[in-house]
Automatic annotation (TrEMBL):
Protein family per UniProt: Belongs to the TrpF family.
Keyword vocabulary terms for this entry: Amino-acid biosynthesis, Aromatic amino acid biosynthesis, Isomerase, Tryptophan biosynthesis
Encoding gene (name): trpF
Catalytic activity field: N-(5-phospho-beta-D-ribosyl)anthranilate = 1-(2-carboxyphenylamino)-1-deoxy-D-ribulose 5-phosphate
Molecular functions (GO terms): phosphoribosylanthranilate isomerase activity
EC number, UniProt record: 5.3.1.24
Main enzyme class: isomerase
Domain N-(5'phosphoribosyl) anthranilate isomerase (PRAI): 4-210
Single GO biological process annotation from the record: L-tryptophan biosynthetic process
Protein name, entry field: N-(5'-phosphoribosyl)anthranilate isomerase
Family annotation (InterPro entries): Aldolase_TIM (IPR013785), PRAI_dom (IPR001240), RibuloseP-bd_barrel (IPR011060), TrpF_fam (IPR044643)
SUPFAM superfamilies: Ribulose-phoshate binding barrel (SSF51366)
Metabolic or biological pathway, per its Swiss-Prot or TrEMBL entry: Amino-acid biosynthesis; L-tryptophan biosynthesis; L-tryptophan from chorismate: step 3/5
Amino acid sequence: MRIKVCGIKRVEDAVMAAYCGADAIGLVVGPKHNSDDFIDKHLAQKIVRECPPYISPVLVTELDDAEEISGLVHETGVTSVQLHSDCTVDSIISLRKTFPNIKIIKNFHVIGPGVIHAMKPFESVVDAFILDTLDLANDKVGSTGLVHDWSISRKIVKEVSRPVILAGGLTPENVGEAIRVVNPYGVDASSGLKDSNGFKDEMKVINFVHRAKNDFFKVRNLSLEN
């Protein structure tokens, strides 16, 4: 079970997430919609530079132009990019030509069963998909705090050939159930791990990581002692 803590806005939160057992952190750069988690490329670069070993810094962007995305990847030094935009297959192919070793994750909002048909053309050009919840009322495409229909997500996991990461309203309280229902490759949380100041709460991160890994082992009938 891979775990990403998204919406990192401070170096200390990146370090904390790593020591709590997260596998990746998300740095939200390149806004087009509302979010409390956007940071500028210079702060993202600083966080990437000071990340501990064995944790992957992920650029999360709403930009859809391959050249603009490439510029951010180059400047920040991330190892993965998560696309929360309407970028095309051709744009992703262009991005991969520029950065052949980067991991590319394409976001899709689970708004109905038909989403799987929209995902199919991207299977050959991305490394993974991430399923999230759309909040049109507040003009948010991520970090909405809203849960979508996990039964659709479960079907997507079974029908696509790429790993599927589950996001959208995940918290320490519901991540175990989400894993049992959907059986995703990984889970991703942001707003559900915040403190009252909008930064990451250490106990929430610890509980999220523990419960995610614990329920993953239960789903796979594995023992933590082996």
